[in-house]
Design goal:
With about 210 residues, the chain is an alpha/beta fold. Helices cover about 55% and strands about 10% of the residues. It binds CO-5-methoxybenzimidazolylcobamide (B1M).
Length: about 210
């Protein structure tokens, strides 16, 4: 693959126009979209996170970097989702209550679609009742939760408890993921699966749907 480090720089500096231009050029050159994501885009967001952690960046810089990332992903995700794979299951996905981070969740949703899952995206800041309602309407679904904050990850447990209280826990499978989530945490809250990244999330969903 040619060097697309301009995409990395564009995301880190929040230059969404360049991010779009470089992504378009890469896709026209038939570059594998997943490689663009893993080699340039995710490392760029990690760099942004590091700059934020050491007070070099503040929330406005996070926002413009996220805008550049999203603009590039908008070009890429249709390619991840449109693989023509046979339907293999249903997933209801959302970022938990109190949490507005949706880039990773959107990536997971697109990859699941590409793998053949029907995906219902509940968005961000999703309260437990909304997960419960969506699961109630779709028996046998996988409930997939994302969280990026150490504070909001605790809300995943509330969703599992709400599913239990409404008698749905045995009728659905639950998977979790997001930067602060660990396999131990997933097990501790009673989730059925954990994925470290979007590719792993697809493997986990396949296993849960089987
Ligand atoms: Co926020 N933020 N942020 N932020 N932000 C983090 C998460 C942080 C680590 C930055 C830092 O300090 N270094 C930190 C959290 C610290 C902590 O909790 N310990 C943080 C903070 C503190 C905050 C605010 C509190 C800042 C403030 O206001 N003072 C605030 C909270 C707002 C809220 O949610 N209530 C906030 C706000 C924001 C923005 C809105 C500005 C923006 C988000 C924009 C958006 O999403 N639309 C933002 C951003 C961009 C980030 C960083 C820089 C990047 C996140 C990202 O998109 N990564 C982030 C630092 C970092 O992650 N390095 C940071 C790229 C994305 C592809 O990766 O989401 O991890 P990720 O998804 C991965 C995996 O985690 C996994 O697969 C994906 C693909 O590999 N995955 C799953 C995700 N969901 C999954 C579900 C699965 C399976 C796998 O199964 C269901």
């Amino acid at each position: 693959m040619s060097d697309y480090s301009k995409l990395y720089d564009a995301i880190v500096t929040g230059d969404h126009r360049t991010a779009v231009e470089v992504t378009k050029a890469a896709l026209e050159a038939n570059v594998d979209p997943s490689e663009l994501i893993s080699k340039y885009m995710i490392p760029a967001m990690n760099e942004v996170g590091q700059r934020f952690a050491c007070n070099e960046y503040f929330v406005p810089e996070l926002l413009i970097a996220a805008r550049a990332m999203k603009a590039a992903l908008e070009l890429i995700t249709p390619k991840l989702a449109e693989t023509g794979a046979k339907r293999i299951g249903r997933v209801v996905i959302g970022t938990v209550k109190g949490d507005l981070h949706d880039i990773g969740k959107n990536l997971v949703a697109s990859m699941l679609e590409g793998a053949g899952f029907e995906v219902v995206d509940l968005g961000v800041d999703v309260p437990p009742e909304k997960f419960v309602q969506a699961a109630q309407e779709r028996p046998g679904t996988i409930v997939a939760m994302s969280a990026l904050l150490t504070t909001t990850m605790l809300n995943m447990k509330n969703v599992i408890e709400a599913l239990q209280q409404s008698g749905l826990r045995d009728k659905v499978r639950v998977m979790v993921g997001g930067a602060p989530i660990t396999p131990q945490f997933a097990q501790q809250i009673g989730a059925d699966g954990y994925g470290e990244n979007a590719t792993e999330a697809v493997d986990v969903a396949r296993r849960l749907a089987a």
